[in-house]
């Protein structure tokens, strides 16, 4: 059974568009981070694919404080707050 | 007051763009668009199309990487290098979008699976590859010549069919994808115009730009012909157009 997920989103006011979240999400084959198909081409997170809090890979590589937040609470996840990430939650490449 | 050399660049930029716009009025991609408007684009054809376009955009890393090594210190104003960096970033975005759509539609389960699929394979003995190899060969030219040939050649043609796909494709998702790439591709054309206007100042450079732009246009149209044929599943000339089947 899949663990329940919590919706997260990119705060574009803080995001630097470095795209590390996209690269990391691709590396573990979740493919939840995608380029929005409009002319601004900002990164978005597909709630249907994202596994947060089961996966926190993007949070670990995001360099811009406050740029990924929980939708409901608005809590900033960058840098990851204590307890958000644990080694056993790490998803190996190809295991998703 | 405009100098004689700037006038040369301005006239050249206008000439090159007009030549490419003439090519762009009807491209092999328009045959594909007409077919899609008439009978829709099946999943298989959609995968073929995005697979080939993704392959082309991926190959641009190979081209741009070589061109970047040919950017010499103080040869051109810093804006020329900045604009090149922006162009690389934009084409990278477009590459990402193509594989995003392939994954979102479930045509491939993972990026690695897409990478290994025949529709997405880079095959050396193809027109697409010939276009790419010939672009990479422009590494031996200065950046002003390369940008004249590519941004006022292939990019003008790309802009035209992107605009038509973004306006007329029946599939709303694909229409949005192509329409979203129009502004950045138009900016590449305008970068080309600016760089040619400012940085093509000698008769030798003008001659080289005209020569190379003609070759790039021709190669790009051949590559588009192959992409359209592969998408439609048409018979392909052996040894010239090789897109392996499932």
Structural class of chain B: mainly alpha
| Secondary structure tally: strands of chain B | 0
Estimate the mean pLDDT confidence of chain A: 89
**Uncertain regions spanning at least 5 consecutive residues of chain A:** none
- Helix content class of chain B: over 70%
Structural notes for this entry:
The complex is a heterodimer of chains A (96) and B (246). By secondary structure, chain A is α+β, with helices and mostly antiparallel strands. With 246 residues, chain B is mainly α. Chain B is globular. Classes of the chains: A alpha+beta (96), B mainly alpha (246). Chains A and B meet through loops of A and helix 4, helix 8 and helix 9 of B.
Keywords, separated by commas or semicolons:
heterodimer; A: 96 residues; alpha+beta; two-stranded antiparallel ribbon; two-stranded antiparallel sheet; 4 strands; globular; B: 246 residues; mainly alpha
Topology of this protein?
The complex is a heterodimer of chains A (96) and B (246).
Chain A: E1 8-10, H1 20-27, E2 33-35, E3 43-45, H2 57-61, E4 68-70
Antiparallel strand pairs in A: 1-4, 2-3
Chain B: H1 4-24, H2 28-39, H3 43-69, H4 78-104, H5 111-116, H6 127-137, H7 143-168, H8 172-180, H9 182-199, H10 203-232
Helix pairs in contact in B: 1-7, 1-9, 1-10, 2-7, 2-10, 3-4, 3-6, 3-10, 4-9, 6-10, 7-8, 7-9, 7-10
Concise synopsis of the structure shown:
The complex is a heterodimer of chains A (96) and B (246). By secondary structure, chain A is an alpha+beta fold.
């Amino acid at each position: 059974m899949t663990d329940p997920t919590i919706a997260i989103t990119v705060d574009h006011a803080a995001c630097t568009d470095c795209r590390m979240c996209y690269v990391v999400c691709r590396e573990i084959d979740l493919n939840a981070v995608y380029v929005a198909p409009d002319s601004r081409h900002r990164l978005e997170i597909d709630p249907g694919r994202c596994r947060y809090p089961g996966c926190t890979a993007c949070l670990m590589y995001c360099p811009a404080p406050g740029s990924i937040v929980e939708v409901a609470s608005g809590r900033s996840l960058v840098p990851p707050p204590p307890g958000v990430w644990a080694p056993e939650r790490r998803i190996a490449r190809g295991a998703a | 007051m405009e100098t004689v050399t700037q006038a040369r660049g301005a006239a050249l930029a206008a000439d090159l763009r007009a030549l490419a716009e003439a090519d762009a009025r009807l491209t092999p991609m328009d045959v594909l668009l007409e077919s899609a408007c008439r009978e829709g684009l099946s999943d298989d054809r959609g995968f073929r199309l995005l697979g080939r376009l993704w392959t082309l955009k991926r190959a641009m890393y190979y081209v741009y990487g070589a061109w970047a090594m040919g950017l010499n210190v103080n040869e051109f104003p810093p804006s020329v290098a900045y604009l090149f960096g922006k162009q690389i970033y934009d084409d990278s975005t477009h590459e990402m979008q193509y594989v995003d759509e392939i994954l979102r539609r479930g045509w491939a389960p993972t990026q690695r699976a897409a990478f290994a699929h025949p529709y997405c394979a880079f095959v050396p003995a193809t027109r697409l590859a010939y276009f790419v190899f010939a672009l990479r060969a422009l590494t031996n030219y200065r950046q002003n010549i390369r940008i004249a040939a590519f941004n006022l050649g292939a990019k003008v043609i790309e802009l035209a069919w992107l605009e038509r796909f973004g306006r007329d494709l029946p599939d709303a998702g694909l229409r949005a994808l192509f329409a979203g790439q129009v502004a950045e591709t138009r900016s590449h054309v305008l970068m080309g115009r600016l760089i040619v206007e400012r940085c093509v100042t000698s008769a030798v450079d003008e001659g080289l730009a005209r020569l190379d732009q003609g070759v790039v246009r021709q190669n790009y149209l051949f590559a588009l012909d192959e992409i359209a044929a592969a998408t439609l599943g048409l018979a392909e000339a052996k040894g010239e157009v090789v897109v392996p089947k499932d």
